Amino acid sequence: MTGKAKPKKHTAKEIAAKVDAATTNRGGGKAGRADRSGVEKGGHAKYECPHCKTTAPDVKSMQIHHDARHPKIPFEEDKIVNLHVTNVTNVPESSSKPRPGVRGSFKK
After folding, report:
1. For the segment 49-91, what is each residue's pLDDT rounded down to a tens digit?
2. Distances (CA, A) of 14 to 19, 24, 62, 102, 104
3. What is the C-alpha separation between 42 and 87, in angstroms, rounded?
4. Whole-Å CA distances, 15 to 2, 10, 76, 87, 104
5. Any idea what the Cα angle at residue 45 is, between residues 73 and 52, rounded to 5°?
6. What pLDDT is attached to residue 96?
7. Which of 2, 35, 64, 88 could form a disulfide with 43 if both were Cys (CB 3.0 to 4.6 A apart)?
8. Three-state DSSP class for 78?
9. Which own/partner contact pairs does 19-22 have at CB distance under 8 Å and 24+ positions apart?
10. Apex CA 43: angle with CA 19 and CA 70, to 5°?
């Protein structure tokens, strides 16, 4: 009878996934606060409530927020502030290189 084959401790795919998870800003914690707040380019939150300035990623989430927090005020979709339109940074139009996604620091 032969012995069992011993697998490697870590595969290259697993190590690459760990490095990616450690260096990519997923938008949480103190580092992602500016991104979530929508100050520079809107961040993850695309829409802003006109009544309380709370942000939401889509219209459906904003409607749920509005029904829960402002039940006496009728929901009007046209009054929602679109942060991606109002907070667009000045990017030269000649730049053909696509902008990267949300990336964090490369500290390890």
Report:
1. 999 988 888 899 999 999 999 999 999 999 998 877 765 555 4
2. 9, 15, 38, 22, 20
3. 6
4. 30, 7, 48, 37, 18
5. 30
6. 62
7. 35
8. helix
9. 19/108, 22/108
10. 130
Per-residue model confidence as pLDDT tens digits over 14-61: 999 999 888 876 777 776 776 666 565 556 678 889 999 888 888 999
- Give DSSP secondary structure letters for 5-69: PPPPSS-HHHHHHHHHHHHS--S-TTTTHHHHHTSSS-TT--EE-TTT--EESSHHHHHHHHHHH
Residue with tokens 């904003």: 62
Q: Sheet of 55-56: strands edge to edge?
A: 55-56, 47-48, 81-82
Longest dimension (CA), the chain: 77
- Indicate the pTM of the whole model: 0.45
The dihedral region occupied by 29, where left means phi > 0, alpha psi between -120 and 50, and beta the remainder, is: left
- Mean pLDDT of all residues in the chain? 76
